[in-house]
Write a structure and sequence with these properties.
2 copies of one chain form a homodimer.
Chain A: E1 7-8, E2 18-20, H1 44-47, H2 53-60, E3 66-68, H3 71-77, E4 85-87, H4 89-95, E5 100-105, H5 116-128, E6 133-138, H6 142-154, E7 157-163, H7 164-169, H8 171-179, E8 183-187, H9 193-201, H10 209-221, E9 226-228, H11 235-255, E10 261-265, H12 270-284, E11 291-297, H13 302-305, E12 307-312, E13 321-326, H14 348-355, E14 360-364, H15 366-380, H16 386-405, E15 410-415, H17 423-430, H18 441-448
Parallel strand pairs in A: 5-15, 6-7, 6-9, 7-8, 10-11, 10-15, 11-14
Antiparallel strand pairs in A: 1-4, 2-3, 4-5, 12-13
Chain lengths: 455, 455
């Protein structure tokens, strides 16, 4: 092995003390959120009935580059941060590639993923605002678990609408959230008006993030002392998740290494946006160049087959509109096993960067993803989440290209989490029962035809 | 917070390069294993049909203090070691105790526990001996998972007999092992003669580690190119697990801190024996004193209610006899949720130390254990394994005593693993359906009456 440690941890005093707001360095800012009622850009007062006030401030601020991380959040981060930057020596050896592969591993906490980075921030601001509780949606269950942990820590109520197919595939996820005191409801449910409507229009639906968001927002605005919090897509979330990239960037600096290719899975964009933030910042400022690659499931291909347009963020159309790569808010992805990537849209910041060709995107099929997951588990000793395994698949594909070309590129990918609650999916793979789902052109056209004309 | 980091990691070049054999410093050595056929101490040739040759050498060596860790094992360790020594600031604050609480966290790897420390060593020696595969038993599933990972890494076959009640409580554990290519059978099974016999004598039994050991040994000796490997109890296992204590000891030295009380859960003794090794060594050599506390379940109280005598290590009585604290090899513990602590006996080394009053033991009931587990999860952000939570319970009890007495003692406990595959148990607790099981005196007397007269 080279003189690079297997794992690089920053010392606690090297951990970043501020989040980085990538938008401050974008010449073309992401398009603003629009109010569905008026078609005009959202102001703070429009968003504050739904979101915590400080989070609204962060959401709307496109110029402040750094936000200091409050002390209580930094203290909580010490439970599970800094996360390691790992050199995948065993994977490199198994692949026989000259590529140097690194991954930033965010799975060493009980929520099982990077989601805790933003959950604790959002719970903190809710507590600061003297709220009673928060509502949210969860797909794979990682965000819901993270928020349950964060709310337990600050003594806030937590109501989670969990996408029905995940609720059924992952019975034990619910128990983790309950252990942290959360209330968990499968979505679409009959407890909200929008849930009743969706159940009526799509009988037997297994749900989607878009549905669950609508339900959670409705529950928040109709319950005094509650606000809604979201685990991805929004700029505030990308801001909090920048801690991933900032730590990785600092660790690389310490090692004297510069990555050539940076790869992350993309559902709503929280992990990818966080991982790439400081690197993309350098790219925007012309200081350094990197190839940046978003990996999405072929079953829900927002970047690679979607349209860059204003769309509703939720199926129930009660949230603001965002300009983003979207498959249409009516699109309900097939019940793939990567529940965290089943979102019809994409972060508006990442969408703008993609549109400016500052990053690339690829889509991968889930059988190939699980092949990569199993290979990684056996070589690197970590059982990855299905979502994270999308990035593994792409990283392995790049490393194989390096082998063919004899190029020793340095690859960084985000290993967002572990698959301990995804064993139904692994079982389907182990039993050779896993299938690939790819939407037809007709299906996508039908959904995109319903995009709003606003914006 | 004080000037002690939340987590202390050794640098990779500070990680111990040799395991420590505590027996070398014991004046009164643990009693030797005896052959059941002759009642005479086992020689290497007696054990080699069952165990790998190098592991037999380690098992029988009571004088060599340090065994160098082979390079490939040290490399594998780099995937998940060094493990952090964590200062439980949040737990201390929640308890309002002046005690300083530390835990050595072994759960940050896919097997979910410390078991991987010995699994990779045993798989390595099996590979070195050109074996085809190994058999083993698993209780909670952590050892089976660890061995599956280790075997996948070295390309060995792996057959796991999983205690039936765990197999049923933890459907997804099996899938993890399958993902690593292992073959998993619920025990007692109908695939071995001893399994058939036990099923016949105890119809409907939920199994025990003692039964599963018998089955795994039978499968190993009756399959060419196979050996049996065990995840606890044996001296070779305690030797490998000494890495836990050695790292903790080095980390404390780095911090300039000395623990007063060291606490670990004890089933067969692998974690406790590993955690305390260098500290007990100092105590034996008169260099330092520590209070050392074993914590066992009230449902399987080998130390606190068992007898120190020669007994069979397995229910089927095909293994060598060991002198140990035992409840009798016929004792089948109730189906408690801490599958990893359901063993009738105890490491002979720990038994001898306990008999010499060099350590203490307490037993705790599982409802109290899960109260502690939930409290810990909510304050420290880690969902602990039921087994590990026995140590948490005892550590909290000691910290509360410190609060009452106004004493700022330093407590170290072993947090052996995570509870992600134990959600059935948490569910029972969340639903207030968990019960405590404590064997009656009559039950224990009946079982102890059948102890062999040998030895």
């Amino acid at each position: 092995m080279e003189n690079i440690p297997y794992k690089t941890y920053l010392a606690e005093n090297e951990v970043p003390e501020a989040w980085y707001n990538l938008r401050a360095d974008m010449r073309n800012k992401p398009a603003p959120l629009l109010m569905p009622s008026t078609g005009k850009p959202c102001a703070a007062k429009d968003l504050e009935p739904v979101f915590c006030a400080e989070l609204v401030r962060q959401e709307l601020d496109v110029t402040t580059a750094f936000f200091e991380i409050p002390g209580p959040i930094r203290d909580f981060y010490r439970m599970f941060r800094p996360s390691p930057l790992v050199r995948a020596y065993f994977l490199e050896k198994a692949l026989g590639t000259p590529a140097k592969i690194y991954y930033k591993f965010e799975g060493n906490n009980t929520s099982g993923s990077h989601k805790l980075n933003s959950a604790i921030a959002q719970a903190y601001y809710a507590k600061q605002q003297d709220l009673r509780g928060v509502t949210t949606e969860t797909g794979a269950g990682q965000w819901g678990t993270a928020l349950s942990m964060a709310c337990a820590f600050f003594g806030l109520d937590c109501r989670v609408f969990m996408v029905k197919c995940s609720y059924e595939q992952k019975p034990f996820r619910r128990e983790v959230m309950r252990t942290y005191g959360a209330n968990v409801t499968p979505s679409p449910s009959l407890t909200t008006q929008i849930g009743q409507k969706i159940n009526c229009e799509h009988p037997g639906t297994t749900g989607s993030l878009g549905c669950a968001i609508s339900e959670a927002v409705e529950a928040a605005v109709s319950t005094p002392g509650y606000r809604y919090v979201l685990g991805s897509v929004l700029n505030q979330v990308l801001l909090h998740q920048s801690i991933i990239g900032l730590e990785a960037h600092a660790a690389f600096k310490k090692l004297g290494v510069k990555p050539d290719i940076i790869i992350g899975c993309a559902g709503g964009g929280s992990n990818l946006g966080g991982l790439i933030a400081p690197f993309m910042g350098e790219k925007l400022r012309g200081e350094n160049d990197y190839r940046i690659v978003a990996v999405e499931p072929a079953s829900c291909p927002s970047f690679t087959r979607g349209r860059y347009a204003y769309d509703y963020c939720d199926t129930g159309r009660i949230c603001p509109l965002a300009k983003m790569y979207t498959l249409g808010s009516d699109f309900i992805p097939s019940a793939s096993h990567a529940g965290g990537l089943r979102y019809h849209g994409m972060s508006s910041t990442l969408s703008e960067l993609y549109d400016q060709q500052l990053m690339e995107a690829v889509s991968v099929r889930q059988t190939g993803v699980f092949e990569a997951a199993q290979y990684f588990a056996r070589t690197e000793g970590i059982l990855p989440a299905p979502e994270s395994s999308h990035a593994i698949r792409a990283a392995i594909d790049e490393a194989i290209k390096c082998r063919a070309a004899g190029e020793a590129k340095t690859i960084l990918f985000g290993l967002t989490g572990t698959g301990y609650f995804d064993m139904t999916a692994y079982q389907a793979f182990n039993d050779h029962l896993m299938r690939d789902y790819v939407p037809s052109d007709a299906e996508l056209e039908a959904s995109l035809a319903k995009l709003p004309t606003i914006g």
